[in-house]
Automatic annotation (TrEMBL):
Purpose: Regulatory subunit of the condensin complex, a complex required for conversion of interphase chromatin into mitotic-like condense chromosomes. The condensin complex probably introduces positive supercoils into relaxed DNA in the presence of type I topoisomerases and converts nicked DNA into positive knotted forms in the presence of type II topoisomerases.
Biased composition, class Acidic residues, residue ranges: 1243-1285, 1331-1360
Biased composition (Polar residues): 1361-1371
Keyword Transport carried by entry: no
Pfam families: Cnd1 (PF12717), Cnd1_N (PF12922)
Keywords, in A-Z order: Cell cycle, Cell division, Chromosome, DNA condensation, Mitosis, Nucleus
InterPro entries: ARM-like, ARM-type_fold, CND1/NCAPD3, Cnd1_C, Condensin_cplx_su1, Condensin_cplx_su1_N
Name of the protein described by the UniProt record: Condensin-1 complex subunit CAP-D2
Principal subcellular localisation of the protein: nucleus
Residue span of region Disordered: 469-490, 506-527, 1210-1402
Length: 1402
């Protein structure tokens, strides 16, 4: 008997001689690589013959084993034929061996002699091991060889490819692996003595199987993948190889994303085949025991684990539902990918794990509670911190709605939650919320029509029916009971299909004509018979369902305003999905959806192609019907209800659809039928709407109008125009859209009639005031479009209009002396006529300007065409040289340029003659312009008639646009009106005109740039909005340079009106796209300007945050760090320091930015005393620590310490300086009070000369005594001393003069002590020196010896010379010279006594 075969660690280990000689090993190895091809082929044939001819156990023979081993060892070097022979021999032997194993197990019971059976079992076990080992080794060798070849190909891609001889390996691999999988699935317990197989045997198979699982190419082979899944499932489940298999599976999941689905498939197959979920449970528990923090770093592993869990829940919902509790704690982890996966797992479980209705009531109740808990978790996760998780939850809810796994009771909660997520800050969450609402509408259980009025009417009827079924119960109690019953049935999530069918049937029966808006009010009043659905309980359940449907309808209707906001989103997905949801809402007749859909029309101008396509598709699906008449009616109703902006968008869409053929010729014919009143019931308004759509279509296909020109004149300007005045305006538009051929036909057939009609429109008074201006605009444009000489007809119109105004004035005032008299007697009727006249003449002037430019362009085109034809006729072989010579001569002489210059001169002259005329004469419009200029300066009159002022200023602006000299002479007037006009309409119109003037005459408007920016501060919302629009247009189109007043536009970002704020943000957003982002260069200037404005801190912060957010480049951010740091040195205000530091904290810092900030420390170190400045720098430091590398992080920490140190030092310096200042003031106060106390204590000598002098002395003594009484024995505290908390002791008493409290100076002015006012004002402290004291003594002696001077001469001397300044004493005392100060104070007291003597003598 052969020795047993033991699986080696590696193939070459079989060549080693075992010490105990108790295992099979290779002894006589043949080096097949050294054999010749023929010899090698013979060698392989011999091995194959032995394996096939001899018994299955011959592989145990040493000779056969050695030869097979030799071939397997060098298998990759064998030729394909030899490989195929060897593999087929081994595989066929193993396939025959496997049935013998089963036969052994059956024959064991019948055999009495155990010895042959044991030998046979041993031989079978040995052969099974050997065949399995060699086959798996061949598979691993071949796969390794193929992988090395593939890597070599990649490395040598640029070199010449080698021809590689290959064989059909893939089918062989699949068969071999399937055979090994079959070997594990048979009963091997008899061969190995127990149900647990040989450890080496099983570990070898499992190890190599998981290694093959790491190869994505093998997993693409279905046969090989299935075999590997069977091997893994049998090893782990049947043979209890759980621990090692789980470890290998977790390794696969974490490292190889392509293997996740296949691993889940293998686990699920093992559970279904062996009815044992131990492998799945073990893996789930291993995942649950994993630390959630580990998934934060391993994002790829977290993603793969999450996908595996979702796949497992999809394949094994019941098993996962019983073990999901170990996964729930991961909802508290930081990895959003794991939370996303768990949300997906719960969704799969809710949809699939609880569908089995069998079982006891207790198990049903448990399953229902488990399902309810999962649903609550899903609702809670809608408020997850991660946008990805919130989005995933909404996607799961959409999947549950599609699976009909959401109960009616939970339906409204999900709908309201989804509607709330429409305002989420993340675009992906908003997209998922929109898709969820679309899905909920598609799968709603309440019926195809969700109008609120319909639900309310039907609900009311069923409530009455319920009251009839319960006559004994009061109404309120019945409604409450029905609601509670409904809620209870909703909570269970189970409502019979009968109720849902009855609900939809009820909708189809009672709401059959709810599509018509006019029937909406009748629904609630109409007594519609509701179907009888059965007993009391079913009626209650139906009422609960109706109430749920009503809440759902109201929830969807309430979200319309949010959808309108989303259509203005910068995210294209928001716009597209909002349009889709609105279309679905219209389909289900949600209230408000129709009005919201009208607002998608302006999106047709979007630059995003996907948004335009979404708008176009929505337009086609809503308004383009199969029936042409219905389509025409839809379109004309849309045109009637649209405003100017919507009409422009509608025209754009209609043009596109006509060019694509979406609007057919039959639809156009139906529109003509509506216009010509060929359809019964057509109104004048519908006729006008039909003509509007036809005009829109004619822009891309002008021939549409040619067949009905006469109808346009007859109907558009006939009696129907008086019924619908706007019809005349639309007819004028149609005339302008005629093709050139149709225009010629019209002029020949009805030209004079048409022009007389247009003239009457302009000069007549039958049009209403609010319609006249738009109609006259179109009529004048039509005249200039089709009339051969429009200026002649225009002059006639002006004269006629002029006569209708001023002839009436002449009748009212026979003797008009001056123009002022004419203006003063204007009546309201004349004001209206004058306004119309001014509008007509100004619009004619504008059209004349356009007409002149078109004529010039036409002449140039004709000249170019003529020159081209002449050049082609002369470019023959004979004349080619002469032509080139003539062209060169003309170029040298400048003849071609002179023709263009002459044409330009003539054009400029013609334009100038419109308003200004010649030097000595003025034409008709010029005379009116002079009158208009004077009229606009008559502010007192125009204030009485604001309508006249609006028309006059509009006409003035048009004349200014036409003529430069007229513009220059009236610019001051225009800006005066735009700033001071009481009417915001006038200011708003003038603001818009400023934009046109800036485009036409930029040099004239350049000095007034500041005044244009000043309109951004206007009190009127419309003026500010127009100013933002005008300045945005000028700046973004490079018609105005971005001046230093751009900060005014920045302030508009925080305007109280949301529309203005949005426009300002849009301006800066578009400005940031130009060139290298001009905001980068403007930001320091804006920062400086805003810092000097009295803005609220929140406003400043929001503005700077938005502006800095528009700067994306790292280089610009780094440069801004340096620029903002340098601004610290130029300012001294703490508020500006704070603003600069806050702006710095908003920047996105890179490593270079942090280094520049550290290097610029000297420029801002003085500002670190402010707490807010330091806090802003600390926030910068915290940002830098997040991305810094270890080296930079050390520098940042050192910088942080430096910041904190300087902050504390600056705070201490400030505190020290403040204390020193307080101490200095206290010292001055103390010395002053000490001097005064000494002076007042010394007695004053008295001289009795006469009674008058005695009286004076008595008065002086009384005053002195009063002062001493006030001061003595009293303690008075100086306010400055109270604040500092210190007290001063002046000799024996503490004295503070009340005057010091009021003035804040430490000086006391008494009759004895007089302070020089000039010294107080200048704040200088004079120092009395000894020489000054001597001079004062000398002067006193002289004054004693002189005759009695007058008071006027004496008092100035005493103020200037005799009275010392107490501040000088303070300074001397501060110097520390106490002796000198005492002597000088004594001298000063003697001077005071002398002064008193001189006063007493006088």
């Amino acid at each position: 008997m052969a020795p047993p075969f033991v699986f080696p660690q590696i193939l070459r280990a079989l060549e080693e001689d075992p010490e105990d000689n108790h295992r099979l090993f290779a002894q006589n190895i043949v080096d097949v690589t050294s054999l010749r091809p023929s010899d090698l082929e013979e060698f392989v044939k011999g091995v194959s013959f032995d394996l096939s001819d001899r018994e299955l156990f011959c592989v145990e023979d040493q000779d056969v084993f050695d030869r097979v081993y030799s071939l397997v060892r060098s298998f990759f070097s064998l030729p394909p034929s030899c490989k195929c022979n060897l593999v087929e021999s081994l595989r066929s032997n193993l396939s025959v061996l496997l049935p013998n194993v089963d036969s052994i197990s059956r024959s064991v019971q019948d055999q009495e002699d155990e010895v042959p059976i044991i030998d046979r079992i041993t031989s079978h076990r040995n052969a099974l091991k050997i065949y399995t080992f060699f086959l798996l080794t061949i598979v691993m060798t071949e796969e390794s060889h193929i992988s090395s070849i593939d890597s070599t190909k990649v490395a040598a891609r640029g070199r010449k490819k080698q021809i590689i001889q290959s064989w059909n390996w893939e089918p062989q691999r699949g068969r071999m692996l399937n055979l090994i999988a079959n070997s594990l699935e048979i009963n091997l317990s008899l061969l190995f003595g127990s149900s647990d197989l040989d450890e080496n045997y099983l570990s070898f198979i499992v190890k190599n199987s998981f290694t093959l699982f790491e190869n994505a190419t093998i997993l693409k082979d279905v046969e090989a993948k299935d075999a590997l899944c069977r091997i893994i499932g049998a090893s782990a489940t049947k043979y209890h190889y759980i621990v090692q298999s789980c470890a290998s599976i977790m390794h696969l999941i974490h490292k190889y994303d392509f293997a996740v689905v296949h691993v889940a498939d293998a686990v699920a197959r093992a559970e279904s085949k062996y009815s044992d979920g131990t492998l799945a449970v073990t893996i789930i528990r291993d995942i649950g025991r994993t630390d959630p923090k580990s998934y934060v770093k391993d994002t790829v592993g977290a993603d793969n684990v999450g996908r595996f869990l979702v796949e497992l829940a999809d394949r094994m919902p019941k098993l996962v539902s019983t073990n999901v509790g170990v996964l729930v704690p991961h909802f508290g982890g930081e990895s959003y990918k794991i939370r996303n996966a768990l949300v997906g797992v719960l969704g799969k479980l809710v949809a699939k794990a609880f569908n089995d209705g069998e079982g006891e009531m207790s198990s049903k109740s448990l399953r229902l509670r488990t399902k309810q808990a999962m649903l609550e978790i899903l609702l809670e996760r809608c408020r997850d911190v991660s946008a990805y998780t919130r989005s995933r939850v909404l996607q799961v809810w959409a999947e549950l709605c599609e699976e009909h796994s959401v109960s009616i009771g939970l339906w409204n909660e999900v709908a309201s939650l989804s509607a709330g997520r429409l305002e989420d800050k993340s675009a992906i969450v908003r997209k998922s919320a929109l898709n969820l609402l679309i899905t909920m509408l598609q799968h709603n259980p309440f019926g195809p029509q969700l109008r609120i009025a319909s639900f309310e009417a039907t609900l009311e009827q069923y409530k009455r029916k319920l009251n009839e079924l319960e006559p004994s119960l009061p109404t309120e109690h019945a409604s409450k009971e029905s609601t509670s019953d409904g809620e209870s049935c909703i909570g269970d999530g189970e409502i019979d299909d009968l109720h849902l069918e009855a609900t939809s049937k009820m909708h189809q029966d009672s709401l059959s004509d709810s599509c018509q808006p006019e029937n909406g009010e009748e629904i609630s009043e109409k007594d519609v018979s509701v179907p009888d659905i059965g007993n009391l309980e079913q009626t209650k359940a139906l009422i609960a369902s109706l109430e749920a449907g009503l809440r759902f309808s109201k929830c969807m209707s309430a979200s319309m305003s949010i959808l309108v906001q989303l259509m203005a989103s910068s995210s294209a997905t928001d716009v597209e999905n909002a349009i889709l949801l609105l279309m679905r809402c219209k389909q289900f007749q949600i209230d408000g959806a129709e009005a919201c859909l009208r607002k998608i029309l302006p999106l047709a101008f979007s630059q995003d192609k996907s948004i335009y396509e979404a708008v176009e598709n929505a337009f086609i699906s809503i308004y383009i019907r199969k029936n042409p008449v219905d389509t025409a009616k839809q379109l004309l109703n849309l045109a009637i209800d649209s405003n100017i902006g919507d009409q422009a968008a509608l025209e754009f869409i209609v043009n596109a659809l006509v060019s694509k053929g979406e609007i057919s010729s039959s639809t156009t014919s139906a529109l003509w039928d509506f216009f010509c009143f060929n359809i019964n019931g057509t109104t004048a308004e519908q006729s006008r709407g039909a003509l509007s759509i036809i005009c829109m279509a004619a822009k891309s296909s002008p021939r549409i109008l040619g067949s009905h020109m006469q109808d346009i004149i007859d109907i558009g300007f006939g009696r129907w125009a008086k019924v619908e005045p706007l019809l005349a305006r639309t007819a004028c538009t149609a005339i302008q859209r005629l093709s050139d051929e149709d225009r010629k036909k019209l002029l020949l057939s009805s030209g004079s009639r048409l022009f007389s009609i247009l003239e009457s429109l302009i000069t007549g008074n039958w049009l209403p005031e609010n319609i006249y201006y738009a109609t006259a605009d179109k009529a004048i444009s039509a005249i200039y479009m089709i009339h051969p000489t429009p200026e002649t007809l225009a002059s006639t119109i002006i004269k006629k209009s002029l006569s209708t105004v001023f002839d009436v004035v002449g009748q009212d005032e026979p003797q008009p002396d001056t123009d002022n008299n004419k203006v003063d007697i204007l009546t309201p009727v004349q004001v209206a006529r004058l306004s119309r006249f001014l509008f007509a003449i100004s619009h004619i002037a504008m059209n004349q300007l356009v007409y002149i430019e078109s004529c010039i362009q036409k002449i140039r085109r004709q000249k170019t065409k003529k020159d081209k034809a002449a050049a082609e006729s002369q470019n023959t072989d004979e004349n080619l040289g002469a032509t080139q010579e003539n062209n060169s001569i003309n170029a040298e002489l400048g003849l071609a340029a002179s023709d263009d210059a002459l044409l330009d001169t003539l054009g400029e002259r013609a334009e100038r003659e419109i308003v200004s005329g010649g030097s000595n004469e003025k034409n008709l419009i010029g005379e009116c312009a002079t009158f208009l200029s004077k009229l606009c300066r008559n502010f007192s009159l125009l204030q009485k008639h604001p309508e006249l002022q609006a028309s006059a200023m509009l006409a003035l602006c048009r004349f200014m646009i036409i003529d430069a000299s007229f513009c220059e002479s009236n610019l001051q007037l225009l800006f005066t009106v735009v700033e001071n006009a009481p009417s915001e309409v006038v200011r708003s119109n003038c603001t818009l005109s400023l934009g046109d003037l800036a485009v036409r005459f930029p040099n004239l408007l350049e000095p007034w740039t500041e005044n244009m920016y000043a309109r951004l501060r206007d009190a009127s919302v419309s003026v500010r909005k127009n100013a933002v629009l005008v300045l945005s247009h000028l700046i973004l189109n490079d018609m105005m340079k971005v001046k230093g007043h751009i900060n005014e536009m920045a302030i508009c970002i925080e305007d109280d009106v949301e529309r203005i704020s949005s426009l300002a943000k849009l301006f800066f957003h578009e400005l940031s796209k130009k060139g290298s982002n001009p905001i980068y260069n403007l930001l320091p200037d804006i920062l400086g300007q805003l810092s000097n404005r009295n803005l609220e801190r929140e406003t400043f912060c929001n503005v700077m945050q938005f502006l800095i957010g528009s700067i994306k480049k790292d280089k610009q951010m780094e440069a801004l760090v340096e620029k903002l740091c340098n601004r610290f040195s130029g300012v001294t205000d703490g508020k500006q320091w704070e603003y600069i530091s806050y702006s710095l904290s908003l920047l996105t810092f890179t490593e270079k930015g942090i280094k520049k900030l550290i290097e610029s420390f000297k420029s801002y170190e003085h500002a670190l005393a402010e707490d807010l400045v330091t806090e802003n720098f600390r926030s910068i430091i915290n940002k830098g620590k997040k991305f810094a590398k270890p080296e930079l992080k050390a520098c940042i920490e050192e910088f942080e310490e430096k910041i904190n140190k300087f902050h504390m030092e600056k705070k201490e310096q400030e505190e020290t300086a403040r204390n020193a200042e307080v101490h200095r003031e206290k010292t001055k106060t103390m010395e002053s009070l000490a001097v005064l106390s000494k002076v007042k204590e010394e007695p004053v000598e008295e001289y009795d000369e006469d009674e008058d002098e005695d009286e004076d002395e008595d008065e002086d003594e009384d005053e002195g005594e009063d002062e001493r009484e006030d001061v003595s024995d009293s303690e008075i505290v100086d306010p400055s001393m109270e604040e500092s908390g210190d007290s001063l002791i002046a000799t024996e008493t503490e004295i503070v003069d009340p005057s010091m409290e009021e003035s804040g100076d430490n000086l006391i002015a008494t009759e004895i002590e007089i302070v020089d006012p000039s010294m107080e004002e200048s704040g200088d402290n004079s120092i009395a020196t000894e020489t000054e004291g001597e001079q004062s003594d000398t002067e006193d002696e002289q004054s004693d010896s002189e005759d009695e001077p007058s008071d006027s001469e004496e008092e100035p001397d005493s103020e200037q010379c005799d009275t010392p300044n107490p501040r000088s004493l303070n300074q001397k005392t501060n110097g520390g010279e106490e002796g000198e100060s005492e002597s000088k104070s004594t001298e000063s007291s003697s001077n005071i006594r002398r002064n008193l003597r001189s006063r007493s003598r006088s």
